[in-house]
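Example 3.2
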Amino acid sequence: MSKTLLVASLLTLMVVSSAAAYGQGVPSPPRREGEQAPVVQQKTEHPAGTVTAIIVKSWGNNPVWADLNTNWANYGSVPVSIDYTTLISSDFTYQDLVNANADVIILSDPAGGLQQYSTAEIDAVSRYVKDGHSIVGTYLTFEWSSTNDTGLAPIFGFSSTLSYEALSISNEFTKLIPKLCLFNNISGKTWQSEGYADSQVPSSGTWTGNLGTAKAAADSDTYVGVVAGHKGKAYTSIYISNMPEYEVTGGPDEQLLYNAITCYAP
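Structure, written as tokens:
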């Protein structure tokens, strides 16, 4: 069997197995081959003051990234340009990140996309953000099924020795630190996410006591879901434990992603 057919078969098996387990603490993730949104040509010239971001070795494309590139002015005054093609599904090196020269790295559900990071790739991400670049992670960043990327956890202030799972949540988030720029233009004390309604969570079933040096800025279902921030010496990381980018454009989900990209960029 060819490598392509083997991967496709494994993905199909995992989707069926996950769907059967849904409601038992195991996600039924959106993992269907060919589901990526059409690739839109990326701009190479940006307005002055643009915050540039690159999605690295993640699950796949979502329409929100192209929409943010086109309609960023709906969410704030800072232009954004997100490269969601160059490194989204490929192995990479530290030099690749340097060459991309992005202000912000985005990890969009990498473990959920079965993207296994090597030790060298984890080190490359860590080194690049410590150079003074922000990072945003979503949903199954750290672990899912046989994919273990828990080495990424310390970049977000979490422990790499924990194991992680996924649990269904209501997707209603409550602001715990309402005045953060992370919540600019998101009205009210709570918001309802329309993204994928599962959360990556430590295997204890809660983020309570498991945030390490990160701090929860918002939570869902009493810390089963979180939006958490971590301040390193030269960078800020934002982790969003559900998947606000999944099949969503507009609303508080896109606003939250815009804020996460622009608020803490160098």
